[in-house]
């Protein structure tokens, strides 16, 4: 439907222009088509459109020009053949997995997953006869051993939330494909700028667009990127019939968010690197993990599959939960929130919030200790952030 497709332009240029189709009014900014449906010139036209014999839109649960513009722009960013937007990141993950399996199938997933993603594979899918095995993501042997003839889907997130462990995407893709399964990567923490799972062999990439793609804490959204065969085949049917559609308004916000994504993520990553270096040897910090540091235990793998360190830092303070709480409560500029990827810097205590439902043993397996605080670095001045963090660390 859209005329603007110039793959020869650089990324920044495509993120400003790709997917825009001007109306006869000649508006500068992308039009927002806040409409449920579309009218037809004739009964014959409606019939043809339902037969897919005529281009055009029919109902926003199926598709919408503003949503399509967002999908085209992010597909261009990811280098994917096609994309579909959803109401939330969880709708994207759930649709991507559920549309690939049926009773009797099996899923292998990394243990360190975003809490709700883990619930979908570990608790929800088994209700419908789909088995699930969880593995330590960085250990490729565990992936190999978990594969079964009925394994259809492998799922991972890297860097993982919140411990920032790295999983070898190309390695897992090879194991998945050898076993006749596909690999889905939740790429939120790396952002579409720093990691290209499709180029590394993954079949499907999912995002919570709620995070860096919006980047200013306004609306929820998700997106699934893959081959045309998957997107327009099993996925499209699942989305159209079950209806986790994104609002055109939210798609418009996210579409505009893509225009500034490279600038925001570059600045946030630069600040994250500065903060990680400045706090690394702090006496109150037991352990600091940042994928952009050359002493990350998996630095070699990071160099192979990521082109930037990300906007997230994992800080384990000395003194467990009490110390972590004192640190968080003493922060003045950095806010306490379970969200991430915002222009505002945010801290989370995963053990008592996002990962509360797991036992201390399971949390330890995922690297989530009571002193661990996850920091999402925003767009504030780096010195103001460092001052706030250092001042608060005196309370630990
Ligand atoms: C936030 C997040 C999700 C869920 O996204 P929502 O938009 O909140 O539904 C899934 N995976 C990861 C890694 C996330 O950070």
Automatic annotation (TrEMBL):
Keywords: Amino-acid biosynthesis, Methionine biosynthesis, Pyridoxal phosphate, Transferase. InterPro entries: Cys/Met-Metab_PyrdxlP-dep_enz, O-succ-hSer_sulfhydrylase, PyrdxlP-dep_Trfase, PyrdxlP-dep_Trfase_major, PyrdxlP-dep_Trfase_small. Gene3D superfamilies: Aspartate Aminotransferase, domain 1, Type I PLP-dependent aspartate aminotransferase-like (Major domain). It comes from the Bacteria. It catalyses: O-succinyl-L-homoserine + hydrogen sulfide = L-homocysteine + succinate. The keyword Amino-acid biosynthesis applies. GO terms for biological process: 'de novo' L-methionine biosynthetic process; homocysteine biosynthetic process; transsulfuration. Its EC number is 2.5.1.-. Pfam families: Cys_Met_Meta_PP. The keyword S-adenosyl-L-methionine does not apply. GO terms for molecular function: carbon-sulfur lyase activity; pyridoxal phosphate binding; transferase activity, transferring alkyl or aryl (other than methyl) groups. GO terms for cellular component: cytoplasm. Pathway: Amino-acid biosynthesis; L-methionine biosynthesis via de novo pathway; L-homocysteine from O-succinyl-L-homoserine: step 1/1. Its cofactor is pyridoxal 5'-phosphate. The modification N6-(pyridoxal phosphate)lysine is found at residue 211. It is an enzyme of class 2 (transferase). Catalyzes the formation of L-homocysteine from O-succinyl-L-homoserine (OSHS) and hydrogen sulfide. Belongs to the trans-sulfuration enzymes family. MetZ subfamily. Homotetramer. This is O-succinylhomoserine sulfhydrylase. It comes from Microvirga alba.
């Amino acid at each position: 439907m859209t005329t603007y497709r110039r793959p020869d332009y650089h990324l920044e240029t495509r993120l400003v222009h790709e997917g825009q189709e001007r109306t006869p009014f000649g508006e500068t900014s992308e039009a927002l088509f806040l409409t449920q449906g579309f009218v037809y010139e004739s009964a014959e036209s409606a019939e043809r459109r339902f037969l897919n014999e005529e281009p055009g839109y029919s109902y926003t649960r199926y598709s919408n020009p503003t949503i399509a513009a967002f999908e085209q722009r992010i597909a261009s960013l990811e280098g994917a053949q096609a994309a579909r937007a959803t109401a939330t990141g969880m709708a994207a993950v759930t649709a991507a997995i559920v549309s690939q399996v049926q009773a009797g199938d099996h899923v292998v997933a990394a243990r360190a997953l975003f809490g709700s993603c883990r619930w979908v594979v570990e608790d929800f899918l088994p209700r419908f006869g789909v088995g699930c095995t969880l593995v330590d993501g960085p250990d490729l042997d565990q992936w190999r051993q978990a594969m079964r003839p009925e394994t259809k889907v492998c799922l991972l997130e890297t860097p993982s939330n919140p411990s920032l462990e790295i999983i070898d995407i190309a390695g897992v893709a090879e194991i998945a494909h050898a076993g006749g399964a596909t690999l889905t990567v939740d790429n939120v923490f790396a952002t579409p700028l720093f990691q290209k799972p499709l180029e590394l062999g993954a079949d499907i990439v999912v995002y919570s667009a709620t995070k860096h793609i919006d980047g200013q804490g306004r609306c929820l959204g998700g997106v699934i990127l893959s081959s045309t065969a998957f997107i327009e085949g099993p996925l499209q049917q699942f989305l159209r019939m079950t209806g986790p559609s994104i609002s055109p308004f939210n798609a418009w916000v996210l579409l505009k968010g893509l225009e500034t994504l490279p600038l925001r993520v570059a600045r946030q990553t630069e600040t994250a690197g500065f903060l990680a270096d400045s706090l690394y040897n702090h006496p109150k910090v037991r352990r600091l993990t940042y994928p952009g540091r050359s002493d990350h235990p998996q630095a070699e793998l990071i160099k192979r599959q990521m082109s930037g360190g990300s906007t997230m830092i994992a800080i384990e303070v000395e003194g467990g939960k009490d110390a972590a709480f004192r640190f968080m409560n003493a922060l003045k500029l950095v806010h306490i929130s379970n969200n991430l990827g915002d222009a505002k810097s945010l801290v989370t205590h995963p053990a008592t919030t996002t990962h509360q439902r797991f036992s201390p043993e399971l949390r330890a397996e995922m690297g989530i200790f009571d002193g661990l605080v996850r920091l999402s670095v925003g767009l504030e001045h780096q010195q103001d952030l460092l001052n706030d963090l250092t001042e608060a660390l005196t309370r630990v």
